[in-house]
Design goal:
mainly alpha
């Protein structure tokens, strides 16, 4: 469509949309580039750089059309690392960042699809159709990365086999827990303690009209019980996880000892599934198999999906679980140290619901959802829990129990 055929109002509307598209693509470029620079996995880093280059090419298309329409050259003023420097991406680790990017790609596809309906500029629509197809491919590639299927994207250069081999042998970062793991444990510990003791405090308050003596006795007893239960449960779970891992390693070592050729073939197939050519996969396995322990670690990592370094430490898990649960459990009890009767009940409800919102908002770091939506949902659940237990407490209190 000739530019002269577009009204000034239409051009202004189109330019606003194209500038938004350009900014989104540039932010994607910086995000992918930053994640690739930080990633110790050369195959995944290569794919991320391929995606970054595609985003930059899209931005160039939008910039070119903006120039044709007489708009000013766009300028990127966002963060140098894009969304990779956000708190959620840093706290959640690589997998969380990839999940967020996968969601952003799906949103971009939907947004571009809506623009097809109202943009009204044929040249811009042609770019949209091209970009949408690319974004669909990006969405599939990110899904493959999340599932561990490292199929190299079309047109991407071949992987440096030596770099991949070095990464497989060193496992410097692959086998360690992501920094978001402890955050998730702490958040869910606080959530568990807060929810359980808020219910107890509400019920006892309803039964005793907010008598601080009884509420504190029940609340503090529940806090101690919840913390000990969470801590011991976390300890036993982490210890069992390690015992199972060591048992699997022992079976894997025996299997390699009995039939090393089969073990080599299996490891080669794992690498081929990730996208390496057969010859490169066999070459890598031959190098790794020169050391029996390296072969064991590499095969166990592929088959079990983890390493010993990635397993939770039982003591750390127990301590984290117990302390975070105690912190969450203490929140509804605190007002009763200073207030009595109805004022104490009201204060406990306000403090507890505020804490519910804060915990729900904090969950957005590990669940991708918006902080306000997660916080609001948690608050509603907490309010319902408090109302129900308070009502039950009133009924029990009137019944003389």
């Amino acid at each position: 469509m000739a530019i002269a055929a577009l009204s000034s109002a239409r051009i202004k509307k189109v330019l606003a949309a194209l500038e938004g598209n350009w900014l989104a693509e540039m932010e994607g470029y910086h995000t992918y580039t930053t994640l690739a620079d930080r990633d110790s996995d050369p195959v995944r880093a290569q794919m991320l750089r391929h995606l970054a280059q595609a985003e930059l090419e899209h931005a160039a298309l939008w910039a070119g059309r903006i120039e044709q329409l007489g708009g000013p050259a766009p300028s990127y003023t966002g963060r140098p690392g894009g969304d990779a420097d956000s708190l959620a991406s840093r706290a959640g680790g690589v997998r969380m960042a990839l999940r967020r990017l996968e969601i952003e790609e799906s949103r971009a596809i939907a947004s571009y699809g809506e623009q097809l309906k109202f943009l009204g500029d044929e040249d811009s629509i042609a770019i949209l159709e091209h970009v949408i197809e690319d974004e669909k491919e990006h969405y599939r590639e990110l899904g493959s990365l999340l599932r561990g299927h490292y199929a190299a994207p079309a047109g991407a250069p071949k992987v440096d086999a030596k770099a991949v081999l070095d990464e497989m042998l060193s496992k410097r970062n692959e086998g360690r827990k992501q920094p978001g793991a402890w955050i998730g444990d702490a958040i869910y510990g606080v959530d568990d303690g807060l929810g359980a003791i808020f219910g107890i405090v509400s019920g006892v308050s309803g039964a005793t009209s907010g008598d601080s003596k009884y509420v504190l006795l029940a609340g503090l007893s529940g806090m101690i019980a919840s913390a000990l239960s969470m801590g011991s449960g976390a300890y036993l779970a982490a210890k069992s996880e390690r015992e199972i891992y060591h048992a699997e390693i022992a079976r894997e070592r025996e299997a390699i000892k009995m039939n090393q050729p089969e073990a080599r073939e299996l490891l080669s197939l794992y690498y081929q599934v990730k996208g390496l050519p057969e010859a490169d996969a066999i070459h890598m396995v031959n190098h790794i198999a020169s050391d029996a322990e390296q072969l064991l670690r590499a095969l166990a990592s592929e088959r079990l999906g983890t390493s010993e370094e990635a397993l939770s430490n039982p003591i750390v898990s127990a301590t984290s679980g117990a302390l975070s649960t105690a912190v969450g459990a203490l929140i509804p009890v605190v007002p009763f140290f200073f207030l009595h009767g109805v004022p104490a009940v009201v204060a406990a409800a306000i403090v507890s619901l505020a804490a519910h919102f804060a915990v729900g908002a904090a969950k957005s770091l590990i669940t991708i959802r918006s902080w306000w939506s997660s916080g609001f949902e948690m608050t509603v659940v907490g309010a319902l829990e408090g109302a129900v237990t308070y009502g039950i407490g009133i009924l029990l209190g009137k019944g003389g129990m």
